[in-house]
Amino acid sequence: MRKVLLFLSILGMASIISFAASGTTSSVSTPASKMVVATVNGQPIYANVLQNAANIGQTLLAIRKVNPKMYQLLLSSKAGTDFLKAYNRSVLDDLVNSVLMEQIAYKDYDIKVTTQEALNRVKQQVAKMLVTYNITKEQFSQYLQSQGYGNLSQFEENSIFTAKFSMTVELLRKAVTSSATVSKEEIKQYYNANINSFKTPMQINVEHILLNSEATANKVLKQIKSNAITFESAAAKYSLDVQTKNKNGDIGWIPKGKNMPNYEANLFNAQIEQVIGPVKTSYGWELFKVIGKKSASTKSLAEVSNQIKNTLIVKKQEKLWSDWLNTVFKKFKANSKIKIKI
After folding, report:
1. Are residues 77 and 218 in the same domain?
2. Which of 16, 114, 161, 282 has the fewest other C-beta atoms within 10 Å?
């Protein structure tokens, strides 16, 4: 179930103990689902949402298993509890930003993800996970309960906040960056400035036979030259390279590069079907046969135009998003009414 744990951490939500609410005066009598830990422009953030996002309880359980002493220190020392509270507050700050993001998305772009839409996304993710790891809903639900996450329905409900935020940001980012465009001239300039990245060096397709001694290599070479056996059959019969012997000894395509060993550089000067060797390499004694060549080439602008366009679009979108966060969103947050209650 370790892969399931990874899925849970990616999804980012799980039912945990009520440490998050411990800093409030009403934590004993008020359920976490009703206790307000912060308000953002009048919109409440409830303790159970903070608990789920911080995931402190499950993290502490994991620490207890691998390091009991650290677990005790975190819970029994002032430094430990101060650290947990500081972490909890940091998560709350992130949640405040999440709510602000949803608010400005609706205010400026009429973007609003409903609870049902978010729940549908969570259910889709769970369904995909069940197929990927070949487990049933019942097995998953039992596992969730055994780890303190609650049953499957509780898990899905607790995941709504994160799913809603994730979906909102997807739509918001798309709206904010929709103006990103790239001209033909920009594509051409990028191509000329990065022409070396579109060049492909000369390549050769090589087969080889790896042997343990020069004498053995010469014997095999003699059989090949006398046509008693083909190079490919000899590779299957004699080669010590288990990865290529059943593929006619085919190493694949080798690009010409700098600082190549002499024997490898010589292969680029060989004729097609020419057998080279025996050659002493770091692996043993080898015979080589060149079966194909590709000349050095440069991809044309037309060939890579879409690739360049996508690269430049992504860069522009990243800048638009970064600029928006540092100006529009930052100003919206500064003018918002945020009250922290823990």
Report:
1. no
2. 282
